[in-house]
Amino acid sequence: MTSYQDMATVDDKAPPAALAPDALRRSLGKRSIVLVGMMGAGKSTVGRRLAARLGLPFIDADNEIEAAAGMTIPEIFAAHGETAFRDGERRVIERLLGEGPQVLATGGGAYMNAETRTRIAEAGISVWLKADLDVLIRRVRKRPNRPLLQTPDPEKTLRGLIELRYPVYAEAAITVISRDAPHEAVVEDIIRRLSAFLQSPAGRA
């Protein structure tokens, strides 16, 4: 059986030409572009560049959670546990979705919450930045403070999270491959696929 991290990461159909930034913003209306995916997928890094290209605000949900709690995310996990963190995360994202349009980067576990998925579908367009296991491992090793990876075997933990989360991430409206390429190339992929979605019956506000 092929695992998610072993699946091909090449799209088989090229989308139509991208909309100009002003046309794309008009098509969005009040909806936000919501980036979902694993830790290390590049949601914050790519999101900042995407927001700059489109002339939209960029919001990192993790930063907003830390500001609301007055604590870092590792501190929240240590003091209150993951359940309390996830509840706060859900409430913060609910609030942020009412402030669109914007580019909103979410934490790796945020999209696993069914209420959050429903709210994103109502007030935003979800974009899954999908990355292979090897890509994620190389990236997360640069940031050793990830709470969910404080285990004896971080690679095994990450593999387990991929198996659990990728079927749920696949519910996102758009999937874009996060790969070892210039960030601008991934931004271009998002803009092209987002343009195609916004011009489809499913994407019209």
Cα Rg:
16 Å
Distance between the termini: 39 Å
Sheet having the most strands: 5 strands, parallel
Oligomer: single chain
**What fraction of the residues are assigned to beta strands by DSSP?**
5-15%
Counting H and I runs of at least 4 residues, what is the number of helices?
A: 8
Binding site for Mg(2+): 44
Pathway: Metabolic intermediate biosynthesis; chorismate biosynthesis; chorismate from D-erythrose 4-phosphate and phosphoenolpyruvate: step 5/7
GO molecular function: kinase activity
Organism: Chelatococcus sambhunathii
Descriptive account of the structure:
This is Shikimate kinase. Its cofactor is Mg(2+). Substrate binds at residues 62, 86, 108, 165. The chain has 205 residues and is of the alpha/beta class. Helix content is 51%, strand content 11%. The protein is built from eight helices and five strands. The protein has helices spanning 21-28, 43-54, 61-69, 73-97, 114-123, 133-140, 154-169, 183-198; strands at 32-36, 58-60, 103-105, 124-130, 174-177. It has a five-stranded parallel beta sheet. It is globular. Residues 1-12 have low confidence and may be disordered.
